[in-house]
Write a structure and sequence with these properties.
126 residues; elongated; single chain; mainly alpha
Length: 126
């Protein structure tokens, strides 16, 4: 469950690096990871993090049977990747939506609706 939140945060950090967000770039340089500030490394890392987050949302969807977080997360991942080269503010907005979709998904997994798959409810009344 928290793997997907880490995946979303990884997507956000990789996206922020690709977009040139100064505090993230400075933080990576400060911890000795300045070699990561290269689009040849960051773009594949960004794609992997987006794919991992979307895969995590798909797995969690099987637990709570709600499509909302998966649809929001998949759309946000596509928009974030495309907007990386087209419109920078839209990329930031899409990354925020991706983190929001993961948080929404975590809430749904922790508090399943009665009768949802994996909730233990049978849907029958006595």
């Amino acid at each position: 469950m928290f793997k997907q939140l880490w995946g979303s945060l990884g997507s956000a950090v990789a996206g922020a690096c690709c977009l040139g967000f100064a505090p993230v770039l400075a933080g990576l340089s400060a911890v000795g990871a300045g070699f990561l500030i290269n689009d040849l490394i960051l773009v594949p890392l960004f794609v992997l993090a987006l794919a991992f987050t979307t895969w995590s949302l798909l797995r969690a969807r099987r637990q709570h049977s709600r499509n909302g977080p998966l649809i929001l997360g998949a759309a946000s991942a596509v928009v974030a990747f495309v907007a990386l080269w087209v419109l920078t503010p839209l990329a930031y907005l899409a990354l925020a939506a991706l983190v929001g979709a993961s948080a929404w998904d975590i809430v749904l997994v922790r508090h399943p609706q009665p009768g949802a798959a994996g909730s233990g409810a049978t849907g029958t009344s006595p």
